Amino acid sequence: MQVLYSASQQAHAPAFEFFRGERVPCFETPARAEFVRQALQARGHELVAPQDDSSALLLRVHHPGYLAFLQSAWKQWLALDPANAERQPFPSVWPVRNLRSDVEPDNFIARLGLYSMDNGSPLSAGTWVAAKAGADAAVSAARLLAQGARGVFCLTRPPGHHAGADVMGGYCFINHAAVAATALRECGCQRVAVLDVDYHHGNGTQSIFYERADVLVVSLHGDPRTEYPFYLGHADECGAGAGLGFNLNLPLPAGTPVAAWFDALETACARLQRFSPEALVVSLGLDTFAGDPICSFKLQSSDFVRLGVRLRRLQRPTVFVLEGGYAASELGTNAANVVDGFEQV
Ligand code: OKP
Ligand code: ZN
């Protein structure tokens, strides 16, 4: 399988995040992509550099004000104090409920809060470059499918599925899966489905397509009553307006056994097949792995082969977009297992 890979993803390298009130080293690291690259190359998959510029398409997924902020955020942070080069900005105030989000404040941290859902998306000097490279990869992947590829793998980071039209969150800045789905629509696919198998609900992807019937979003994830992102991902979220019936959430309790996870995957696949998409985007989070340090599903490495086999049986041209997965040293094996499962059928 062709693997879209850009070294620019390494440019996103914040040092720490907050976890239970403490500063801890980031779980989402450049090393993750390196493990995936090594494993895919070792199994003979070909690395391809993204050739497309996603700039125009990005504006169909994200709001212009948000993109402008993201693109210049680090420069603005440095303009406040050159010593900020050694510091990471975090939001500390958010326009919840009765506060106004229609006026962009001048204050940098206030704007960061306006465009954030949490304090869990640390910015670094290269965040924009890395996330933009991921969007370029998503557009290139769509083009390769349009040219006849059966499967393409976007080796992108940071992840994207928590990023909404005008909001970053959960390590995510640009929603690469949404960019891929939008690019596939533009390539002539009438119906595109997104299947999100990350441990965490892809709130950004859901929100972006919530009122659309041309992009079905199906997600298997930890129950938001106890798991991040907490405020979206419940079973009663079915889409709205023209999109009513085109969003399916399958929340599962933390600790769900492997057999029950694959049962839910069958439910997801049945809905996907009824929709009959001309292309499929898989938000491939591998944090469902039993050894993941921040998640609580139980998949073993061999289960990722089974996942790949099942996805191939859908018989849809498929773009895989890397999302989460924080057991870094096993991430390469788990990603390559999905790809090999997909290709072995
Ligand atoms: C991103 B993706 C750890 C708290 C958890 C949110 C998790 C984001 C996961 N500091 N922060 O869906 O894998
Ligand atoms: Zn996740």
How would you concisely characterize the structure shown here?
The chain is α/β, with parallel strands linked by helices. Helices cover 37% and strands 14% of the residues.
Write the layout of secondary structure elements.
Blueprint: E1 2-4, E2 16-19, E3 22-25, H1 30-42, E4 46-48, H2 55-61, H3 64-80, H4 108-114, H5 127-146, E5 151-154, H6 176-186, E6 192-196, H7 203-209, E7 215-222, E8 247-252, H8 258-275, E9 279-284, H9 301-312, E10 318-322, H10 328-344
Parallel strand pairs: 1-4, 1-5, 5-10, 6-7, 6-9, 7-8, 9-10
Antiparallel strand pairs: 2-3
Helix pairs in contact: 1-10, 2-6, 5-6, 9-10
The biggest beta sheet, please?
8 strands, parallel
- Termini gap: 13 Å
- Taken as a percent bin, the fraction of beta residues is 5-15%
Structure annotation, total helices: 10
Q: List unreliable stretches of 5+ residues.
A: none
How large is the radius of gyration?
19 Å
Structural class: alpha/beta
Shape descriptor: globular
Small-molecule binders here are: {5-[(3-aminopropyl)amino]pentyl}boronic acid, zinc ion
Determine the fraction of residues in helical runs and give it as a percent range. Answer: 25-40%
Q: Would you tell me the overall average pLDDT?
A: 98
Q: Numbering strands along the chain, what is their spatial order in the largest sheet?
A: 4-1-5-10-9-6-7-8
Number of strands: 10
H/E series: EEEHEHHHHEHEHEEHEHEH
